[in-house]
Amino acid sequence: MKVLVTGVNGQLGHDLMNELAKKNIECIGSDITPEYGGIRDRSAAERAQYVQMDITNREAVFDTVRELRPSAIMHCAAWTAVDAAEEEENREKVYAVNVKGTDHIAGACKLYNAKMLYLSTDYVFNGEGTTPWDPDCKDYAPLNYYGETKLEGEKAVSSRLERYFIVRIAWVFGLNGKNFVKTMLKLADTHDELSVVDDQIGTPTYTADLAVLLTDMIQSDKYGYYHATNEGGYISWADFAEAIMMEAGKATVIKRVTTEEYGLSKAKRPFNSRLDKSKLTANGFTPLPDWRDALYRYIFELNNQDLKF
C-alpha cells in the first residue's frame, strides 16, 4: 500500500506520517511549502519522502497523483483558522483550500483509482441541543464560514467517490502546531487567572491517538462517515482547561464564563460538539483512549522533547 498524506506541516498530518511508517506502510507527505516545514523531532514525518503540492492548483494535484500513483490519499490539508475565515478578504482563499482543494483531491482519487480519507469537523452541524451528533446525520446548518466550507468539502468527496471515509473530529491537539493546550500553558506563565467558556461541550482529540485509528481505517474497506475523538465523556472547554493546569502543575485559576460573557470571537462556535462515536466499534475499529490519559501523555511529550521548528 502507498499512501499520500496532505497537510503534513500540520498537527495530524505529522502524526499520520509517523504512524504509517510504524506500520511499514509506504507514505509520502505533501504540503504547500517547498520543503517539509513541521517540527524537527527525528520523526518519520521529517525523514519521509516529501513533495510540494498546492491543492488549490488542479493541474498540480493531478500531476502529482499521476506520478506517485498512491493507493490512498489521506487529506489533512485545510484552512483551520476559524475566526480569520470570517474576514471578507480571506473567504476566497478559504474556499479555494477547503472546497476546491478537496474537490481536486477527490477528482484525482477517482481518476487514478485511489481510496480517500477526508478530515472534517463538528462545525458542519448547528451545535444546538444536547444529543450527540450521529455520523450519518444530515441535519447540517454550519454556524460559520469555516464550517460551511468543510461541509462543501464533504459533499465534494461523497458526490465524486464510492471508496471514501469522512471522519469528523473536534478540539484537536498535537505536537506539531498551535492548539488549545499549548495556548493555555503559555498563558499560564503570565496569568494568575484565565477566563474559559463552560457552555460549549465536546471532547478533545489527540492527533497521535487519532493517527492510529486512521491508519487502521485506511487499510480497511469499511467506507462511510465516522466521528472520532478521544473517549472519556463530554466536557466543557473550562473543564479541559482545568485538567491542563492540574496535569501541568500550574496554579492558574480557571474562571468559568458563558460564551456571551467571553465575547471576542468573530466566528460563532457550536454549543453542542458532542459526537457519537459508536459507529467505530460497530465496524470493528478500536476507540481512542480516554482524553485524560491522552493529555497526560501529551504534556509528557511536550516536557521531554527538544522540538525544533
Quaternary state reads: single chain
Mind summarizing the main beta sheet?
Answer: 7 strands, parallel
Number of helices: 11
Might you state the CATH topology name?
Rossmann fold
Portion of residues in beta strands equals 15-25%
H/E element order: EHEHEHEHEHEEHEEEHEEEHEHHEH
CATH superfamily: NAD(P)-binding Rossmann-like Domain
Can you name the CATH architecture? 3-Layer(aba) Sandwich
Tally of extended strands? 15
Q: Which parts are unreliable, with pLDDT below 50 for 5 consecutive residues or more?
A: none
Q: In percent, how helical is the residue content? A: 25-40%
**Count of discrete domains:** 1
First-residue to last-residue Cα separation: 30 Å
What spatial form do the alpha-carbon principal axes imply?
Answer: globular
Whole-number average pLDDT?
A: 95
Structural class: alpha/beta
Cα-based radius of gyration, to the nearest Å: 19 Å
Give the strand line-up of the largest sheet. 3-2-1-4-5-6-11
Explain how this protein is built.
With 309 residues, the protein is of the alpha/beta class. It has a single domain (2-177, 204-230, 274-289), classed as NAD(P)-binding Rossmann-like Domain (Rossmann fold). Helices cover 39% and strands 19% of the residues. The protein is built from eleven helices and 15 strands. It has helices spanning 11-22, 44-47, 58-68, 91-111, 145-160, 180-188, 207-218, 237-248, 259-262, 278-282, 291-304; strands at 2-6, 26-31, 49-52, 72-75, 115-121, 164-169, 172-173, 193-197, 201-202, 205-206, 224-227, 230-231, 235-236, 253-257, 288-290. The strands form five sheets. It has a seven-stranded parallel beta sheet, with helices on both faces. Strands 7-10 form a two-stranded parallel sheet. It is globular.
